[in-house]
Amino acid sequence: MDNDFHYTLIKPHASLADFVEGFGMFHTDNGEAKEVVVIPDGRVDLFFVRSGTEPFRITLTGLETEPKQRSIPAQTTFFDINFKPLGVEYILQTSIADIVNRAKNLSSDFWNFAEADLENFETFQLKAAQKITALLPVAIDERKRKLFELIYASNGEMPVKELSEKVFWSSRQINRYFNQQFGLSLKAYCNILRFRVSLEHIAKGKLFPELNFTDQNHFIKEIKKFSGVVPKELSKNKNGRFVLLSVLKQK
Fold this sequence. Notes:
Layout: E1 5-10, E2 20-28, E3 34-38, E4 44-51, E5 57-61, E6 68-72, E7 76-83, H1 85-90, E8 103-106, H2 121-134, H3 142-153, H4 160-167, H5 171-182, H6 186-203, H7 216-227, H8 231-236, H9 243-250
Antiparallel strand pairs: 1-2, 2-7, 3-6, 4-5, 4-7, 5-8
């Protein structure tokens, strides 16, 4: 990643893995705003933001389905909880159907966090993990748990009909659940996950489809749909503007 933009990620304890993908921290060092492109990744972010020019804020994002240009103010720090969809339903206990491609501000004392909690990332992560652990449900709908397990294991490539049959839940009911809870269809979510896995390949310089795309043209079309550029340009990642790709290249 470029020298003025830094990212750190901590994976959650196994007990949280159905609900949380990780805890992240990124910040800008220099005196200029950082222009970035936010691209879909199938996660929901709970951001805790500290800036020298703006008040402390806590923001919840919806799922992204298209690329968005963003400007990160100079000397800004973001602490982030990366929620999986089940985490939205069972930990945050809310629907995000109304904030697809958008975000909303939460109370500045949400979960009893304050700006002082952003002094140390590890301390923040421990506090967040403890809060989430306290909110873990006694039980979850096994159909939903199995559904997401299959979606992730297949990189979003398992057909909706097959997913439905394996979890004994009708396609119609699954899509109603996805639209009401997350604001998009199961197929749309699976396409986002396939794109995200393709990003991991592009980060390694693989500019041809490794997954089940119809052909090279279909691959290029899908990458451009979600990133705004063709695979070759995405791979170059000029000025590190595609933050997710920069993070994948660090691995």
